[in-house]
C-alpha cells in the first residue's frame, strides 16, 4: 500500500529538450530515505559523482517531505539538492516560508531539473503540472523585482516565487535561491547551478489544501503533545516568550561572545567588544518592526527591521539573523546594525549566500591589512559603506568583485595566501569558533557539505542545553565525547531534513514525537530508532558520494588557525581546537576508515 503524506508526483524537467516526465518516488526510497534531503541526495547520487556541477548533466532538485504542508509544526521547509560548484560535494540547502507547502499543495513531492534551457526560463507549477516559460525580460533583474513581476502577473494570493538574481546569473559559485519571503537556500551555490541552466525562477500557484493524517488516532494524541513540547521549552516559543520568539536566532550574539566563541576579524580573535550593538536585544529595542513566521510555526523566529536614520534610512528587510549578522558584523569588525541589514538585503536581492559574503569580505580585509592584495585596492575593517559597494561589485563581477565572487577559498588562493581562508572543503565557516565550542570543530571538519553549523548543531548541547538527545549541557571547552555527540546530531538533523521539518523543532520535540507524527501522516509504523537509521543512512550515502567524487583521507580538516593560534576571548583564552583527537573518536563511532565509508557499512545500511 502506498504511504500517505506523499503527492506521488515528482516532475523531472529536461530543460534542453523541453520535456517533462512525472514519476512517483519509488516506495523503496520512501522507506529508506523518506523525502526532502534524503530523496534529493539519492537522485544526485544516482546521477553520478563525477558530473561537472555547471554542466547541463548536473541535476538540481527541489524536494519537500511527507510532512510538508500538513498541520505538523514547522513543516514548511524546502530542500534544494545538487552537486555544488563551490565545494564539489553533494550539497543540500533548505529554506522556510511557504514555498515548500505550496509545492505540496500544487501536487508535488519535488521538481528535478536537468539540461540547460536555450534562453532564460521560469517554471510555472500549478494543479499537478509544470510549464516552462520565457524569462528573457527578467534576466538581469534582482530577486525583489522578479518577485514583484510575478505578483503582478499571477496575483499575490497563494503565490510562491523562488528566484535567482545577478549572483546566480553571473555564475558566482556561492549564489543561492531566495523566495518571496527572503528565505534563502543559502549555502553551497545551488543558485549558480540554476544560472548555469538558464533557470531564473520557479513560480508556484497553489491554494492551501493541507493533506490529512492517515492514522487519525495517532494524530490526535501526537499533535497536541508536540505543540505542548514546543511551548514548554524556554528557548523557543511565544506564550512563554522564549528567546527564539522574542529575539530570533540573533539572541546568540551575546551568548556566544561571552564564552569566547565569536570568530572575530576573520577568526583572528574570538571576542567582539561591541557585540551588543549588533545583538538580538539591540535589534529588538531599536529597529525591530515585525516577527514573521513560516508555515505552521508558532515560534516566529524571523525578525523584520526598519532602518530609520543614516545612509540606509528607509530600508525595511527581513532576515536579520544571527549567522549573517555575525558574518557581516563581528567577522568584519563592523558594529553597525544598519550596514549589516543593508548587505543582507543586497545578498537577498543578488541571490548570494550572506555567510560566504561575510567571509570573503573579512578574508579580503585581512589580505588588505597584511599587504597581500597586490595593489587591488583593499578594504578596511568595519568600513560599512565600502563593504556595501564591494558586495555590489561581487554581484556584478566588477573589478575586484570578479575575484571575490569566486568565494573565500578561491579568492584567498588568488592572493597567494590560502591560509587566510576560513573554509572546509571550500565552504566558509559560520558563526561559532571551534576554539571556544569544541564540538563545532569536529562538526565543521566532518560535514559532508563543508564548514556548516546545521549538519550537527552541537551548540544546542554545548551552549543552550535543555534539548533533544544529549539533554544536559556539556562543557564547550571539553573535546572528549564531542566526536560521538557530533554523530548523534548529524543523524538527528539529517532525519529532520528528510522529513523536512525545521531544525528548531529538535530543541523541543522528542524523537518519539517525530516518529509518531510520521506514523500519523504516512500510516507507516515508525519509532525513534527507525528515524535515526534513516539519518545515518543518508549521511553515509552523502559521504560515499563524496568519497567517489575525490574526498578521501585528509578531507576532514580545519583551517590551521583554529589548531595553532590560541583563542584570545576571555571565555576560552589559550584554547585551540583538538581536532585530531576528536576525529579519531568520530571515525570510530561512524565505523569509517579515515573519512572513507567501508563496504561493510554500506551493506549494513542497505546502500549497496
Ligand atoms: S522556527 Fe523560525 S525558521 Fe523554523 S519554521 Fe519557525 S519561523 Fe521558520
Furnish the topology, listing elements before pairings.
Layout: E1 10-14, E2 19-23, H1 27-33, H2 36-47, E3 60-63, E4 78-83, E5 90-95, H3 99-105, E6 110-114, E7 121-126, E8 129-134, H4 143-154, E9 159-163, H5 166-169, E10 177-179, E11 184-185, H6 190-196, E12 199-205, H7 216-232, H8 243-247, H9 252-258, H10 280-286, E13 288-290, E14 304-306, E15 316-318, H11 322-328, H12 337-350, H13 354-369, H14 384-396, H15 401-404, H16 408-414, E16 423-424, E17 427-428, H17 438-446, H18 459-464, H19 482-499, H20 511-522, H21 528-548, H22 560-564, H23 579-590, H24 599-604
Helix pairs in contact: 1-2, 2-19, 2-21, 7-20, 11-13, 12-14, 13-16, 17-19, 17-23, 19-21, 19-23, 20-21
The chain binds iron/sulfur cluster.
Iron/sulfur cluster (SF4) binds next to loops.
Describe the model.
The chain is α+β, with helices and mostly antiparallel strands and 608 residues long. The protein has 24 helices and 17 strands. The strands form 4 sheets. Strands 2-1-6-3-4-5 form a 6-stranded mixed sheet. It has a 6-stranded mixed sheet with strand order 8-7-12-9-10-11, sandwiched between helices. The protein has a 3-stranded antiparallel sheet with strand order 13-14-15. The chain is globular and about 65 Å long. Bound molecules: iron/sulfur cluster. Iron/sulfur cluster (SF4) binds at residues 74, 76, 96, 293-294, 297, 299-302, 502, 504.
Strand order of the largest sheet: 2-1-6-3-4-5
Q: Extract low-pLDDT stretches.
A: none
What is the average of the pLDDT values?
A: 95
Helix content estimate: 25-40%
Largest sheet, in brief, is: 6 strands, mixed
| Count of DSSP strands | 17
Shape: globular
| Small molecules (ligands, ions, cofactors) in the structure | iron/sulfur cluster
Global Rg: 22 Å
